[in-house]
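Predict structure. Input: FadR/GntR family transcriptional regulator, 226 residues.
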Amino acid sequence: MALKAAGRTSLVDSVVEQLRTQLADGEWAVGDRIPTEHELAQQLGVGRNTVREAVRVLVHAGLLESRQGNGTFVRSTADPSAVLRGVRHAGAADVLELRVALEAEAARLAATRRDTHDLLRLRAALTGLREEGDRDADADLAFHLAVVGATHNAAFVEVYRFFSAQVHEVLVEALGDREMPPVDIDAHEALVAAVEAGDPEAAERQARELLRVPMETVAALTEQKR
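Output follows.
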């Protein structure tokens, strides 16, 4: 089915939507290799560069997986875009409540499952957080990903990776970085100590404490804007 010629951006979007539809309709199953760029370009009546950009979008969305030298494979037929739209339209307080639920449980599991490698990674992430500054979003994300990784739960890791970037975007758009309190390094240190000690209750408590001040700040700012 050829697509009508249009501006480059809209044409890429059109290819993305066409491929999303094919995935949702079950044209390819999870694990299948999709047609090559050349084949898709012929089928859709567009250039290979347009197909390449569209595939890249779907790889980032988690629907496709590119394997060097082997082609592109279907990773999931469940389109996460509706979930992403829901998160983006949620309020900052709702998003933080989601973070509390995810990170508190991750900390509890990490305390019972962590190994030596996990502890080294946590300490390295904590050092990075100190060195990069208390407002560095990437350093903070790396720290929390290290905690989630220590759960040794692949599903948990994927879900957290999926939501974490959206959570940050929502908070920045809703409140602005300068309005949020700085990262509490001491609270992060206490969380690492609880995980190292193998104390799940303390780890969960510290994870909740990490987000207590941000939640209070969001509540106060939201009230001021009413």
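The two ends are 50 Å apart (CA to CA).
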